[in-house]
Amino acid sequence: MSIDESGHATGTMSRRERLRVETSREITTIALRQLAEGGPGAISLRGIAREMGMTARAIYSYFPTRDDLITALMSGIAASLSQTLETATNAVPATDPGGRLLAWGQALRQWALAHPESFRLFYGHPIPGYRPPPGGPVDQTARRVCRELTRLVAVAWPRARHLQPDDTSWSDLHPDYVAKIQEDLPDVPPAAAALALRVWGRMHGLVALEIDGHIHPVAGNPAALHHAEMLDLVRSLNLA
Fold first, then answer.
1. CA distances from 182 to 16, 89, 144, 150, 154 (A)
2. How do residues 84-121 score in pLDDT, each as one tens digit?
3. What pLDDT does 11 receive?
4. Tens digits of per-residue pLDDT, 18-40?
5. Does the predicted model carry a pTM greater than 0.70?
6. DSSP string of 94-144?
7. Which phi and psi (to 5°) does residue 3 adopt?
8. What is the pLDDT of residues 109-162, one digit of tens each?
9. Do residues 43 and 87 touch, judged by C-beta distance below 8 A?
10. What is the DSSP letter of 166?
């Protein structure tokens, strides 16, 4: 028996293994509810144990520390997000770079609306006392998402470049970001890498405002507002 990247079991399992997988899933489900109801600081192994009728010792056999539980949550969230974005993008022909970017932006919003607590956990709501492991699921997925979005922008670059600033150099970008781009996508010029960051900012920013409740008081149709922003983004890259 093995566990795939989304936390689901694969292959043949014994009854004990099935029970362990089911219990682990229940623990993470309750942890996500704690997050939704009380914010990042509300995640508590002891609270989960009480709700499930388990002893603290028993629950620690699944997740020895709260950080282990949070990292497991992050891993499942990361797999769900990256798979959703890539599936949506790959459904559009490679000959339609504007359509692929539009699909990416729409998939990000739909995923965030379906998993608001996961979006908040993954993007920018620090959990008090939690230190993610270096190279863990957050870092890996952030790099994967960055790489795939930068690749989409790089495909669009020949048509978009004359509309973009032409004085960007690698020194204008953070060294860590530069190192990752040069390793993953060595043919991407610095101006295209900078453009990918701006594209990400536009895609992510409006979604974050909506998830945090700032859009509904001023927009009667958030979906239409987001779609218009994504169309304007595509047009700004000379892809429509």
1. 46, 23, 14, 11, 13
2. 999 999 999 999 999 999 999 999 999 999 988 888 88
3. 56
4. 888 899 999 989 988 888 888 77
5. yes
6. TT-HHHHHHHHHHHHHHHHHH-HHHHHHHTT-PPTT--PPTTSHHHHHHHH
7. -115, 130
8. 999 999 888 888 888 767 778 887 877 777 888 888 889 999 999 999 999 988
9. no
10. S
State the residue for tokens 């959990």: 127
Alpha carbon distance 69, 35 (integer Å):
12
Q: Provide the token pair at 223.
A: 């979906």
What token pair was written down for 134?
A: 């270096």
- Retrieve residue 171's tokens: 């020194």
Extract the tokens encoding 107.
Answer: 């998939």
Whether 108 and 236 have beta carbons less than 8 Å apart is answered as no
Is residue 190 classed exposed, middle or buried when 0-12, 13-18 and 19+ CB atoms within 10 A define those classes? middle
Identity at 94, one-letter amino acid code: A
Token reading at 183: 């390793």
Three-state secondary-structure class, residue 58? helix
Residue carrying the six token digits 């499942």: 76
- Distance separating alpha carbons of residues 216 and 131, to the nearest angstrom: 33
Give the amino acid at 64: P
